[in-house]
Amino acid sequence: MPISRLARRLFESFAAWLQKRETRGTLRYLTDDELRDIGLTRREAMTEVSKSFFWD
To answer: What residue ranges of the chain have pLDDT lower than 50?
Structure first.
């Protein structure tokens, strides 16, 4: 039985939200050197980490 398109979109949106949440959490623990390697400052990383889960 195929999953409806709405259910699939909800699942995909939830999966994307989880991935962003995990990535933002990881940023919190990177060193300044690691952040520099990916082109972010500490301030930019903390701004990203502090975004609400509604933020895309």
So the answer is: none
Q: At what angle do helices 5-28 and 42-49 cross, to 10 degrees?
A: 140
**CA pseudo-torsion sign 21, 23, 24, 26:** positive
DSSP 22: H
Going 36 to 41 to 46 to 52, the CA torsion angle's sign is: negative
> Is the overall model pTM greater than 0.70, yes or no?
no
Question: Residue 4 gets which letter from DSSP?
Answer: P
Spans of all domains in the chain: 21-49
Distance of alpha carbon 42 from the chain centroid = 16
Give the length of the chain. Answer: 56
**Where do the H-state alpha helices sit in 1-56?**
5-28, 32-37, 42-49
